[in-house]
TrEMBL record:
GO CC annotation: cytosol
Classification via CDD domains: OMP_decarboxylase_like (cd04725)
Entry keyword set: Decarboxylase, Lyase, Pyrimidine biosynthesis
Name of the protein in its database record: Orotidine 5'-phosphate decarboxylase
Cross-referenced Pfam families: OMPdecase
Pathway connected to this protein: Pyrimidine metabolism; UMP biosynthesis via de novo pathway; UMP from orotate: step 2/2
Amino acid sequence: MKNDRKEKEKEKKIPLEERIIFALDVPTADAARELVEALDGRIRFFKVGLQLFLAGGWPVVEHIASRGNRVMLDLKLYDIPATVRLAVEQFRDRGITFATVHGYRPVVEAALEADSGVKILAVTVLTSMGSQELAELNFGGTVEELVLTRARRVLDVGCHGLVCSAREASMLRHELGRKFDMVTPGIRPADSDAGDQQRIATPGRAIGDGSDYLVIGRPIRDASAPLEMVSRIQKEIATALEPQQD
Ligand SMILES: O=C(O)c1cc(=O)[nH]c(=O)n1[C@@H]1O[C@H](COP(=O)(O)O)[C@@H](O)[C@H]1O
């Protein structure tokens, strides 16, 4: 791809501390604050999902941002376009970098219309889903086909980025290039438990295949030594980036 080199140059500018987006999946604002304070020397990107947002609301988002961190607000919006646009307008000036919506074109268009200053990420197919779940929903094709169709349709209308599994990362980069942010959850360091995730990948593979950011929750949150786990994952990320830097 012609612009590949330029885009890779851009990619290198993401600091290592922002490559992991740590999922603050905890039940209280206090628990979130403790984790942020323990980790934010090392991780500078945090995800606030439904559980924490319902527990802590905007003060917790603003607290994380006020410490100089980036925030991904993961509410996975899905509603009629007018409602989505009005909700996304609420994201303005809150210190949020990324917000998630479902990867359905009218929803994405409405989120972009809000012009909130926040980058909109479209969730393609949840990493907890596999071919069996798609069959149950009556989708004819493969997971990869559905991810690619959804990705194409939302990027065509200007969506800033995608949430997908790292298993699709290399296919998406090959088909769609590098001009969008790729955020991949379902990351599991070797020998950690997959839990409810089906489409998983190691940090090294995810980065090597073209992910920009890795959403990681339980492997760090539940580690016996979370900071050691962060170091191990960041080392793996740095190694995976090395061949791209020559
Ligand atoms: O949008 C997300 O962040 C997301 C999309 C997806 O397809 N799969 C997925 O796991 N996530 C989120 O990523 C995080 C993954 O957490 P762990 O499985 O604990 O690493 C959770 O907070 C999920 O809500």
